[in-house]
Amino acid sequence: MVLDYKDVSFSFQDRKLRRRRRLLWLLLLALLLLAAWLGLRCLKARAAVARIEDLLLAGRQDQAETLLQDAASPLFQRGNFRELQALSELFRGRLPEAAVRFAELRRRGLSTTLRSGRLLAHFFDRGEYDKLDLYSSHLLPGGGDQVRWFHALCRAAFLDADAAEKALAGLSATYRRANGKAVDMLSRFSGSLRSGRVDYVFDRNDVPLAYFDLQRRASRSLLPGMDFAAFEAQFKKGARFFHLTLDGGLQRRIDRLFQGHAGTLVLLDLPGSAIAAAYSKPGAGKPADAAFSERYEPGSIVKLVSLLAYLRRGGDGIFPMECPGHLAVDGGIIYDLERHGLVRDVSQALARSCNVGFARMGLAVGRSGLTELLQRFFFNAPAFSDRFLAFRTGRFASGGEAALARLAAGLDGVTLTTLHGAVLAAVFAQNGLHFPPFLIDDTKNLLGLGIYRHDPRPLRLLSDDPGFLRVKKAMAAVVEDDKGTGRRLAGSVPRLAVKTGTAPGKAGKLDAILIGFFPYDDPRYAFAFRLEGAGRAELRGVFFLQELLKLLYPR
If pLDDT is split at 50, 70 and 90, which confidence band does 7 have? Predict the structure, then answer.
């Protein structure tokens, strides 16, 4: 076989060229793959930034921080990730840490493209002016109408009219026209700062209850019997306006009832337990918000819980009983104010406030039975909370049989506050349904936009317990029994359900305490009040309640 190469050309140069072309294509493919990978990483980083923003705005800080740790890239969106780290601290309320991160971001000169308007609006809408101040100040060197606008809002919220007006003056004409209504509202608020007075607490009828004096940097109350120190502290954190559940006109009339008396009163609107009146006229050395915070011995008021505990146990075996006026227990003696003689049933025992009967009920129920129910009724429990307000609850102590008997009869070992007493009355009025008491109906920012609105959420303390109905009937018997401690209220309109309590006060005097609700068949109000040193509840306390009813039901 003979091979003929005469028509074949061969060159080492062609071979090198083909190799170069192959390498060039491979390099180009690698570059394309790298570009695709980099593009994908860039898109993923951008999506992560947007997702982290959304999580922060949704209040899901834990998820935002986890994603931030996992997705932060040294190559892509570096400035955005660093700003998000600062914002994460800000959303957590860790302002010093956030300030350090913002300062580091500015020092490095990294650019960011976050949707800052949404974040600024988030802080403003919630009245979080300290956060708004820090973030808007960080963004302000970069300029922009939106940043200047929120900076103006923040300055006004901190009651700095000059700085607010200066920031407003920097807005473009286009922005001012597009947001004319809001700009006008802010301008009017800045103008009100020039007057030196800002009304910021209002009652349910929009009547001012307190204003802030800019010259003295302090609040002035327009309502007797109410302390606004907690509201002032909030206002100083940034202007906001509080609408309360109080009826200012009613509270002023209650103030006149307290002429010659020291004490406290709380009136709840049912069913939601909105505080319609919260009056404090404390004696010397007592807290200004005594209706919410001062604990005192309630006397026989606690018998309501003792009675329900006894009924839950079965409510038999004691009545009818003979009350000799005293009872020996564990080496001690429980005394009654009088010898009641024959006490037919639990209703008559409550109506006549028989200490002997309730001491025996407490012993029958036992320590665990009574203390467990007291805890359900918020004794030895955390304070009721309403935003930044805290309303203290009562306390009790347990011991041996003698202490148990005295506790059940309300003779020793227990305290409550006036608000707590009104809550007890409200729970019995509504057959065990409990709405946490509240004073703040809504809060708005300086543009009149809602920061907060109360959302009533009831809790049933005891499910479908028939004992509540029997306690309610016994509370009505306090008034309607011919020897009841509230018999001087007989024939009142509306029909009442009450419990009287008399307890030792200062200087050997007696405090008169009453709680209850009305009208009996369709409860509209629950109340509690204490008259310090007024004497027995069935006398001065009853007369005071009669006058209170005249305020609520004028003829």
Answer: low
